[in-house]
Amino acid sequence: MTCQKKPEPRAPHWGRARATIALVAVISCAVALPNDARAATASRDAGLCDRAAIAAARRENVPAEVLMAITRTETGRARPSGFQPWPWTVNMEGIGSWFDSKKQARDHVTAQIRRGAKSFDIGCFQINYRWHGHAFSSIAEMFDPVHNAVYAARFLRELFEEHGDWHRAAGAYHSRTPALANAYAQRFGRVYANLSTGAHDAVPAPRGLLDPVRPLVEAGEHRPGSLVPLGSTPPGAVFIALN
Q1: Boundaries of each Transglycosylase SLT domain copy (predicted)?
Q2: What is the pLDDT of residues 94-125, one digit of tens each?
């Protein structure tokens, strides 16, 4: 009888194991890098409205905290670092949306204009296209945080001169209807009270604003909100460049 020698145990396939570990690491990095890039972009874009507000405040002689409170009241959302405004915000005929990028927001608006949409709010300060689009050369310019902020600041300064009070001016910024203006002024006041100079990127969300579902849309209001004068006629049809 021939006896076969029992095979000796093989050494573990360390080479194969190392290759597998390396592959997993590469895949993990490939997933992490886009996420990190998106996070960095989001962090950068979140500060655009505040920086634009500060620049516009200096130019138009409006308190920076007033503009920073307005942009949060209009577009703010609760983030890990605080209650922050977002520049790529659109309120399309009563449906508010935050977009991840300027391109996404602009593409959405362009598509809706081609569909026939005429009244919607854009950007850091939710400038209304129907009533104020004539003041901009293009949709891209309306989305630009600085152009958006300067126009809003100029309008707020006019309202302050009319009302003599920044809270009342903020209410009129949103609506000339007293009930809507008062409700907005109260919301603005809560945001304004939480602003502290030097801590603009870490403003805590005020009570009642901890989990906003969408940009500001007043219940029961059929007209889009801010920067829409009541009882006025828009200055003709708005035709501005889409790009």
Answers
A1: 53-186
A2: 889 999 999 999 999 999 999 999 999 999 99
